[in-house]
Specification:
heterotrimer; A mainly alpha; B alpha/beta; C mainly alpha; A: mainly alpha; 0% strand; C: mainly alpha; 77% helix
Chain lengths: 224, 242, 254
C-alpha cells in the first residue's frame, strides 16, 4: 500500500469523524462569524476602511479555523489513545501527516466558502472581479496552513501545557502564507488578479517546502 | 475467517535452523519517565508458544513493560528483541506481529464499532470480509453500528478483542483485560488466549484477577519496576512450557 | 584580567572557558569604548546611531545561533547522538537572548529616528518571527518528556523553522516594497571608516561572547545530567557514568 493510499485512508477517516461530530459547523464557523462581526462593529461604518481590512480579517479567521480544526483532529486521536494505533500500524507515518492535512484542508475550503459570503455582505468585498486568483489564493494559502498545522497539531493530542504551544508555533511559521494570502486576496478583490502572480508563486513554494519537510520528519515526531 | 497478508512464517526461526527465536528476549531493559523509573533492569526470556502470566501490584511496571515490548514506548536503557527483531532498530517488523490489549482501547469515539474495526483492518492490510463475522463472535452484532461514544467499557473491550482476533498476532499481550468486564466478557478473553495458545502463538497476560490465568504455563512477578526471581507455577493441566 | 581569571577559576571554569571569557570581555569592552568615544556621531541621527554597534552584532549572533541550531538538529536526527541535541539547546538558549536584544535595541532606535516604537522593517519583522519560534522551541524543551522525544521534537522545530524563515523574510520584503521604500536601518555607504571597523570589532566580540555562553551552558547541562544520573543511580543500581548512552544512540552507532 503506497503513501497516497494510506494518506487517503486516514483523510477519509478524519473527514468521516468531522461529518459525524460536526465540529466545524457547530463550533468553528460560529466562532469565526463572531470574530468578523466584532471586528466589523469595532471598525465602524466607514465602508472603505472595512473593504481595506477585510482580506486581513478573513485570513485571520482562516488561521483561527485551522488551529481549532487541527486541535480537534488530534484530540480525536487522543481521546482513547487511537494515535498509538496509528503508531503501531505498518504504515508510513508521513501518511498521518498528509492524511490529516488533506482532511483539514477540505474543511478549511468549505469554511472559507461560507465565510467569503459573509464577508462580502458585511464588508462589501467584491468577489467576482478575479475569481480564479481568489480561488488560487485560498487553496494555496490554506494548503500552507494545513501543512504547518498538521505537523505541530500533534502537540494538541494531549491536553496539557503541550497543546498551548501549538498556536504559538503556528503563527510565526505560517507568516509567509498569511502575508501572501492577504496580498493575493486584496489584489483579486480589487480586480487586479493578474499582478498577484508573484504572491501565488510564493504560496506554492511555501507549500512545497513545508509539505516536503513534514513528510520527511513527521515519523520522528510520532515515536516515543 | 480473516486472512493474514504477511509472508513471514508464523514461527521466526534462527537462520541456521538451530533453534527458533525467543518470542521475547530482554536484557537490562529500563524505562524511566523523568526521574521515575517504571521498569528497572529487566532480563527476561519467553519462548514462542508460551503462555505467561505476569503478576504484580499496581505501579509495578507491568503496563510499561508490555508497552515497551510492543514498541509503543522505547527503552531508556538496555534493549532486547521480539521474535528476533530488535526493539529499537526493527520496530516495524515487531509491530506487524504483535498486538496489545490494554487499558485504552484506541478507538475513535465518533465512529461506529464496525467503522473502527474496518479502519484498523484497512491500515493493517487485513481483509475486510472477516469484520462482521468477528463482531458477531465477540457479541457486538447489534451494537456494531452505534457510535463508540455510546459504548460501555465492556463493549469497547470487545471491539479491541475483535481487533486482536482479526490481526492474529504472533505475540499477544494483554494488560488487565478483564477490568470492567462481566463474566461473559472475561470468558471471551479466555477463549482468545486459549485459541492463541492452541495455534502456538505467544501470550503474555498481566492481570490482578486471581481467578483468571489458569491456562498459563508459568508466572512472572514484578514489583517496583523489577522482575522478581522466577517462581515456576505448580504444574498445570493444559498448555505451557516452563 | 588576572583577578577575573582567578575568580572564574574558582567557579570551576576550565582553561578554555577562561580564555573565551577573557576574549569576550575584552572584545565587548573594546566595542564599548570604540562605539561610545572613538567613533563620531552620525551626521543625520546623532548619538542614537551608536546603538548600531549593539544592534548589528546582536542580529548577527541571533542568526548565527539559529544556523547552529539547524545544523545540530539535522546532525542529531541523522546520527542520534545526544551531544548534538545538547549543543542545539545551548545555542538556542543563548541565541534567544541576542534575538531579544536585537528587537529591544531596534525598537529603542526606531523611536527617536522614526517616531514609532515598532516598524515593520523586514529584518526586524523576521527577527520577531524568529523570536516567537525560539520561544516555542524552548517551551517544547520544557515539556515533561523522555530525552529522546524532547530531542527529536526540538530538532524538527529547528529544521522546519530554518527552512521557513528565509521565506518569511522574502514575503515581508515584498510586502514592504509595495508600501514604501524599505526602512534602512544600516546605512552602509555613509559610514565613516571608524564606524565600519567598530562594527567588525563588535561582531567579533559578540561572537566570542556567544561562544563563551554556549560553552558555559553546555557545562551546566552536563552538571544537570550528572545530577539526574545520581538521583536515578540507587534505584537503577547503575553507576552514574554507565547511564551515559541511550539505546537509540547505541543502535545508530552499531
Amino acid at each position: 500500500m503506497n503513501l497516497a493510499r494510506q494518506s487517503g485512508l486516514i483523510a477519509a477517516k478524519d473527514l468521516r469523524i468531522e461529518v459525524r461530530g460536526r465540529y466545524a459547523l457547530g463550533a468553528v464557523l460560529p466562532f469565526a462569524a463572531t470574530v468578523l462581526l466584532a471586528f466589523g462593529l469595532s471598525l465602524g461604518p466607514d465602508r472603505t476602511l472595512l473593504q481595506r481590512t477585510a482580506p486581513g480579517l478573513l485570513w485571520l479567521a482562516v488561521l483561527f479555523a485551522s488551529i481549532l480544526s487541527f486541535r480537534r483532529a488530534y484530540e480525536s486521536e487522543g481521546e482513547d489513545g487511537a494515535l498509538e494505533g496509528l503508531l503501531l500500524a505498518p504504515i508510513d507515518k508521513a501518511a498521518v501527516f498528509l492524511g490529516k492535512a488533506v482532511a483539514v484542508l477540505a474543511q478549511l475550503l468549505v469554511f472559507e466558502a461560507a465565510v467569503l459570503l459573509l464577508v462580502t455582505g458585511l464588508f462589501g468585498l467584491s468577489l467576482g472581479a478575479s475569481p480564479l486568483t481568489l480561488a488560487a489564493a485560498f487553496v494555496l494559502g490554506s494548503a500552507g496552513l494545513a501543512a504547518v498545522g498538521s505537523m505541530f497539531g500533534l502537540l494538541a493530542e494531549s491536553p496539557r501545557a503541550r497543546e498551548a504551544i501549538f498556536p504559538l508555533l503556528v503563527l510565526p511559521l505560517t507568516t509567509p502564507a498569511l502575508i501572501a494570502g492577504v496580498k493575493a486576496t486584496s489584489l483579486a478583490a480589487a480586480g487586479r488578479g493578474a499582478s498577484a502572480g508573484g504572491w501565488l508563486g510564493l504560496l506554492l513554494a511555501f507549500d512545497v517546502v513545508l509539505v516536503a519537510a513534514g513528510t520527511l520528519v513527521f515519523g520522528q515526531l510520532l515515536e516515543d | 475467517m480473516a486472512s493474514r497478508t504477511t509472508d513471514a512464517p508464523s514461527i521466526a526461526s534462527h537462520p541456521d535452523g538451530v533453534a527458533p527465536e525467543p518470542a521475547i528476549a530482554l536484557s537490562g531493559l529500563t524505562r524511566v519517565f523523568g526521574v521515575v523509573p517504571a521498569v528497572v533492569r529487566v532480563d527476561l526470556r519467553i519462548e514462542q508458544g508460551e503462555v505467561v502470566l505476569l503478576r504484580g501490584p499496581n505501579g509495578a511496571g507491568k503496563s510499561t513493560l508490555l508497552r515497551v515490548v510492543v514498541t509503543a514506548l522505547s527503552p531508556t536503557y538496555g534493549g532486547g528483541s521480539v521474535l528476533g527483531f530488535d526493539l529499537v532498530r526493527e520496530r516495524d517488523q515487531i509491530r506487524r506481529r504483535t498486538e496489545i490489549l490494554g487499558h485504552r482501547t484506541r478507538l475513535y469515539e465518533d465512529l461506529t464499532g464496525r467503522e473502527n474495526l474496518r479502519f484498523t483492518c484497512s491500515i493493517h492490510g487485513i481483509d475486510l470480509r472477516g469484520v462482521d463475522e468477528t463482531l458477531e463472535r465477540v457479541g457486538l452484532g447489534d451494537a456494531a453500528r452505534e457510535r463508540v461514544r455510546a459504548y460501555s467499557h465492556g463493549m469497547r473491550q470487545r471491539v479491541a478483542v475483535a481487533r486482536a482476533i482479526l490481526r492474529q498476532p504472533d505475540v499477544l499481550l494483554l494488560d488487565e483485560p478483564y477490568a470492567g468486564l462481566d463474566a461473559e466478557g472475561k470468558d471471551l478473553i479466555d477463549s482468545v488466549i486459549v485459541d492463541a495458545a492452541r495455534e502456538d502463538r505467544t501470550v503474555v497476560l498481566a492481570t490482578h484477577d486471581a481467578a483468571r490465568g489458569s491456562m498459563a504455563g508459568r508466572t512472572l512477578f514484578m514489583d517496583g519496576g523489577r522482575l522478581l526471581p522466577v517462581l515456576d507455577g505448580p504444574a498445570r493441566a493444559g498448555e505451557g512450557r516452563a | 584580567m588576572v583577578a577575573a581569571e582567578r575568580v572564574l577559576g574558582k567557579l570551576g571554569a576550565r582553561r578554555g572557558e577562561r580564555v573565551l571569557a577573557a576574549l569576550a570581555a575584552a572584545g565587548v569592552l573594546a566595542t564599548a569604548i570604540l562605539g561610545l568615544v572613538v567613533t563620531p556621531p552620525d551626521a543625520d541621527e546623532g548619538n542614537v546611531f551608536r546603538l548600531i554597534y549593539i544592534h548589528v552584532p546582536s542580529a548577527w549572533l541571533a542568526y548565527l545561533s539559529f544556523l547552529v541550531v539547524f545544523a545540530c538538529s539535522v546532525t542529531y536526527l541523522v546520527t542520534k547522538r545526544t551531544r548534538w541535541d545538547r549543543l542545539a539547546a545551548a545555542s538556542a538558549e543563548v541565541g534567544v537572548i541576542f534575538i531579544f536584544l536585537t528587537l529591544v535595541v531596534g525598537s529603542i532606535w526606531a523611536k527617536p529616528t522614526w517616531g514609532t516604537w515598532w516598524t515593520w522593517d523586514p529584518r526586524l519583522t523576521t527577527t520577531a518571527v524568529l523570536f516567537l519560534v525560539y520561544v516555542g522551541y524552548l517551551a517544547v524543551r520544557r515539556l515533561p518528556d523522555s530525552p529522546g522525544r524532547r530531542a527529536r521534537w526540538s530538532a524538527v522545530i529547528g529544521i522546519v523553522a530554518f527552512v521557513d524563515v528565509p521565506i518569511v523574510h522574502l514575503s515581508v520584503v515584498w510586502w514592504r516594497s509595495q508600501h514604501q521604500a524599505p526602512a534602512i536601518l544600516h546605512v552602509a555607504p555613509r559610514m565613516a571608516a571608524s564606524m565600519a571597523s567598530t562594527l567588525v570589532v563588535g561582531v567579533i566580540a559578540f561572537t566570542f561572547l556567544y561562544a563563551y555562553l554556549v560553552v558555559l551552558r553546555l557545562r551546566v547541562g552536563r552538571l544537570e545530567e550528572r545530577l539526574l544520573a545520581e538521583a536515578l543511580s540507587p534505584r537503577l543500581e547503575v553507576a552514574p557514568s554507565e547511564q551515559a548512552v541511550p539505546p537509540e544512540e547505541v543502535a545508530a552507532r552499531g
